[in-house]
Design brief:
This protein is an alpha+beta fold and about 200 residues long. The protein is built from four helices and twelve strands; from the N terminus they run αβββαβββββαββββα. Strand 4 and strand 5 form a beta hairpin.
Length: about 200
Amino acid sequence: MAALVLLAVTGCQSGVSGQPEPEGDSFAVKDGSRLRFRPVLAELPPGPATGAATNRQSTDPAEQQAAAAALDCSPGPDPLDGRDDPALPLVGCDRVLGTKYVLGPAFLTGSDLSRANARLDQSGSSMIGLSFTDAGSRTWADWTAANIGKQVAMVLKSRVLTAPMIQSAITGGETQITGKFTLPEARQLARDIAGA
């Protein structure tokens, strides 16, 4: 049930429509090394930690489930704090919503982004726009074309910022993240994605 709610709440779409962002709502990516894009392999509803911390980067599905059950998603810094290996799976969580995720190895980093911004779309809803580098655009286009209907997590220092669903192949280097968030929330998410 939680997966259906999340999928209805956020999504990625291609295109560049929308109103220009107010001054100060566009952020250049300064240090993209801390942000990673990881495919969502499984999503678990929020819940209390049920054990001691375990290996959050195991390739064994049983260990991944145990690590997710043991993970404490309360607000605060992530114990891994960005020391995760991008080549291995990761069990992480959205510390705002408390949702836990089993994520695949990273396929893009923040170095593949040039800008993130917050703005209103044509209907007046808040959205986040991402602009990819040329190399990032090609990787993103290939990955989104092969993963329509699946989620991708944007992970900053081992913490899931957002996990939108891919609605279509996204070409052209521009992506929009839409959902039920206010413009201040969209600004903060754009700022976090950019590492500003």
